[in-house]
């Protein structure tokens, strides 16, 4: 998702990291899906690329949920009142 913000502006990872006030490594890990968007990073992203911090966090939550394998949870059942 961050590629869509960085590339159209003609920024490099290094340039975008500088604009965000983070290290190149931090942004690279985020772009390459080895790190998630924290609330602090969401604020930084909203200030630099637009949108709201909430919208960045929602995107992260949606991504996290898609990565969860529902097969792992098939054995779980809702508890019914006695």
Automatic annotation (TrEMBL):
* Gene3D superfamilies linked: lambda repressor-like DNA-binding domains (1.10.260.40)
- Determine if DNA-binding is one of this entry's keywords: yes
User: For the HTH cro/C1-type domain, which residue ranges apply?
Assistant: 9-56
Highest taxon listed in the record's lineage: Bacteria
What are the UniProt keywords, alphabetically?
A: DNA-binding
Name the CDD domains for this protein: HTH_XRE (cd00093)
User: What are the GO MF terms of this UniProt record?
Assistant: DNA binding
The signal peptide here is: none
What protein does this entry describe? XRE family transcriptional regulator
Organism (species): Candidatus Methylomirabilis lanthanidiphila
Which classification does the entry list for the species?
Bacteria, Candidatus Methylomirabilota, Candidatus Methylomirabilia, Candidatus Methylomirabilales, Candidatus Methylomirabilaceae
């Amino acid at each position: 998702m961050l590629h869509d913000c960085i590339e159209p502006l003609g920024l490099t990872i290094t340039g975008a990291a500088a604009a965000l006030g983070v290290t190149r490594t931090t942004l690279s890990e985020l772009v390459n899906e080895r790190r998630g968007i924290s609330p602090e990073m969401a604020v930084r992203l909203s200030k630099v690329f637009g949108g709201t911090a909430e919208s960045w966090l929602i995107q992260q939550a949606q991504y996290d949920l898609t990565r969860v394998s529902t097969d792992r949870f098939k054995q779980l059942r809702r508890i019914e009142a006695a």
